[in-house]
Amino acid sequence: MRIDTYYQCPVCQKAWETESKAIICRNQHPAIKKQWYTCGVCGAGWNPDAHWGEKGAAKQARTCEQKHQKKGEVEEVSRQTFFLSGGLQGKYYP
Fold first, then answer.
1. Domain of 9?
2. Which domain of life is it from (predicted)?
């Protein structure tokens, strides 16, 4: 399981990798911290602020990873996700 964190400008809604970039985007407003609970294999994500809540989103991400492990497809799916996402999700297994 992986927790992806990004910072969002509250005015223009742009997402940034660091809080400082979000603050530079809109100095008058504080940056808002958002989190997604993401499956480390396929990149599927769950928003804890929506329906799931923190525990539910973490459980969904963990369950998704376990399903991939049970099927024995961790390396294959993770490699595909790595290339399809431009290296942002998944892992490269040579």
1. 2-84
2. Bacteria
Encoded amino acid at 19, one letter: E
Tokens of 77: 């799916």
Number of domains, the chain: 1
Residue 68, phi-psi category: left (phi > 0), alpha (psi -120 to 50), beta (remainder):
alpha
Length, in residues, of the chain: 94
Sequence-distant (6+) residues with CB within 8 A of 92 are 79, 82, 83
* Res 31: pLDDT: 64
User: Can you tell me the distance from the alpha carbon of 80 to that of 65, in angstroms, rounded to the nearest whole number?
Assistant: 15
Q: Is residue 89 assigned to a domain? A: no
